[in-house]
Write a structure and sequence with these properties.
Elements (H helix, E strand, L loop, with lengths): L5 H18 L6 H23 L5 H5 L1 E8 L12 H4 L6 E6 H9 L1 E8 L5 E8 L6 E6 H12 L3 E9 L4 E9 L7
Antiparallel strand pairs: 1-2, 1-5, 3-4, 4-5, 6-7
Helix pairs in contact: 1-2, 1-6, 2-5
Length: 186
């Protein structure tokens, strides 16, 4: 359980800033790749914990994030997962709006997580999917979209919560939460 969410949200905002300062401006190398992957995983875990602790508004929980998807062409295994050009139809991208919970779970449980570079060898986005979706589709998220998403969550502070005791679950259930922010991104 998260008692005080500001520390978690401040770290998300630091990551959002780091995307501009480092990842969108520094030439790719192995150290940057490892640091980026760790930062994304920790950020997605943080978002998931904030959602589970009811520390963000319902409208933020329900927001959808723009990603691209690519249909699978053949079986993905531990030995070929990195050959995405062979495994997915990268010539036919389709836009998809992904729910927040689906996004962070796909990334946290990623089977494929590959960084995409621009012509200057700077990170522009990443490909991902989970062990459950690897043989169906591959997703791609632009780094600027991730930054906007992380920034939005990091700035979301609910201002009112109401709970009622629920005999069925033998605990208090959330019946209303309001936030200063009520609009989504994308």
């Amino acid at each position: 359980m998260i008692w005080e969410s500001s520390y978690w949200k401040e770290d998300l905002l630091k990551f959002s800033d780091k995307i501009n300062r480092v990842y969108l401006s520094t030439a790719y190398d192995e150290d940057i790749a490892v640091e980026f992957e760790k930062d994304v995983m920790i950020a997605m875990y943080s978002v998931r914990k904030l959602v589970e602790a009811k520390k963000i508004s319902p409208s933020t929980e329900l927001m959808e994030i723009k990603v691209r998807k690519f249909e699978n062409k053949k079986e993905v295994t531990r030995l070929n997962w990195h050959r995405i050009k062979e495994l997915y139809d990268l010539d036919k991208p389709a836009n998809e709006n992904m729910k927040m919970s689906y996004l962070y779970n796909q990334i946290i449980h990623s089977y494929i997580f590959l960084i995409s570079l621009n012509n200057e060898e700077i990170i522009e986005g990443f490909y991902f999917n989970s062990d459950k979706t690897k043989d169906q589709k591959l997703f791609y998220m632009e780094l600027k979209e991730l930054k906007e998403y992380i920034n939005f969550v990091g700035n979301d502070y609910p201002i009112e919560e109401r709970y009622e005791y629920n005999k069925i679950i033998e605990d208090y259930a959330d019946v209303a939460r309001k936030s200063k922010k009520t609009d989504g991104i994308g």
